[in-house]
Every structure is written in C-alpha cells, then in structure tokens.
Amino acid sequence: MQMTVDAAITSRRSLRAFLPKPVAREVVEHILHVAARAPSGNNTQPWKVRVVTGAVREKLCQAVLHAHNTQADQHEYSYKYYPDTLPDTYLARRRKIGWDLYGLLGIKKGERDKTHIQHGRNYLFFDAPVGLIFTIDKALSQGSWLDYGMFLQNIMVAARGLDLDTCPQAAWVKYHRVVCDVLNIPGTEEMVCGMALGYADEAAIENTLVTEREPVSGFATFKGF
Q1: Which CATH number fits domain 5-79+123-209: 3.40.50.300, 1.10.10.10, 3.30.1840.10, 3.40.109.10?
Q2: DSSP 3-state assignment of 184?
Q3: First vs last Cα of the chain: how many Å apart?
Q4: How far apart are CA 74 and CA 174, in angstroms?
Q5: Among 190, 166, 177, 167, CA closest to 68
C-alpha cells in the first residue's frame, strides 16, 4: 500500500547506505513518470536524466572514484553551489550535519584520510544499485533551475511512496568532465546533480541520522489571519 503524501514527504531523508537489492526498470520509470508532473515555466520541462545500473554504473563509479582519489585538485564544480562565505545561520546548520554524520561514523575532526574515504562513497552512490545523473540545457536560465528542484523533490517523494530511499548528491558535479565522458553527455548540457536510489540498509549507523528542521515559526510569518 502506498504511503500518504504527508508520510512520503516527512519520511524522506538523504540516506548514505543502501542494500544491493536491485530496483526494476519499470519501478524507476514509474517514479520518473510521476515526477515529470512537476511544474515548470511555460511547461518547458527542463530535466534530462541518465539512469545507470549494472556494468554502466560500475564503470561510472570507478572512473569518478579514481579521479577523486588521484586527481581531485584537477577538478572543480561547473557551477557554484554555495557562496564563498555562508552567513552564520546557514554555516551552523551545514557544520552540524557534517559533524553529526562523522560522529556516528567515528570520524574525528582532522582525520582527513577517513573523511576523504567517506566522501568518496558519494561516487559509489552509497552502494545503491541505481544512480541517476541529472543535466540541464546550458541555454536555460535560473527559472529552469528552480523548476528542476521541484522535479527532483518529486522523484524523492515518489520513491518514498514505493518504500525506496534516495540521496541527492551535488558531489558528482565536481567531476562533471569525467561523468560526461563516460556517459557521452554533450557539451550543450550541464550537470545539475546525481542521486542514489535504492532500498535503505537499516543496519547502517549513518542511516540513523535525522536532521533537524526549523519550526514553521522560525521561517514563516502570517498576516491577515
């Protein structure tokens, strides 16, 4: 039985450990079909998705993980996800989730080798059997990127409705040149992010992490009620 919408939204988390249990192509196609109902300006539908599993997924993971381990300083993000300086409020939230995760994994401050290895698990899709790589036409502008976020959210919520989990991953963008080479993505497209899709490994300590959220009173004001 599928979850209610509220349950699918509130149970969505960015998981970092998945079981090897395969996900059928028709299930992924269903999720993408549902997600494609996301709104977009003038119905432009700016999303493009490469879904990888099996040998293709393995080839992509190994190529990017090799770059991460041996050539990290030769790669950079194709767009700026974060500003050079984050205001204190957002910086505090970013630091908290980082140290909460590393604390669960027993990684202490300054243990760079362990941090590097853990970050590298991004490039294995955290062992999820299905990886998704999202791109957008470079001719499009900021509004289409906003539309894209709604499409990504739809994917994650639709996956929860089928008892699947996800992890959206901007980390893949640093190695966009490698990804585009392996998957033959044309130069007219820019990477938006990657995403892991699969069944949660409930025994993994990192999956016990539940991030905090601001109460409605912390970000919303109501007038006229």
Answers
A1: 3.40.109.10
A2: coil
A3: 37
A4: 10
A5: 177
Q: How far apart are CA 189 and CA 179, in angstroms?
A: 12
CA–CA separation, 209 and 19 (whole Å): 17
C-beta of residue 122 within 8 angstroms of C-beta of residue 171:
yes
* Annotated domain spans of the chain: 5-79+123-209
Q: Two tokens at 32?
A: 């993408």
> Which tens digit of pLDDT belongs to each residue from 21-45?
999 999 999 999 999 999 999 999 9
- CA atoms of 120 and 38, how far apart (whole Å): 31
Give the C-alpha separation, 111 to 106, whole Å. Answer: 10
Q: Is the pTM of this model over 0.90?
A: yes
CA dist., res. 208 & res. 140, Å (int): 38
- Residues 189 and 136: their CA atoms lie apart, in Å, by 5
Average pLDDT of the residues in 3-9: 90
3-state DSSP call for residue 144?
A: helix
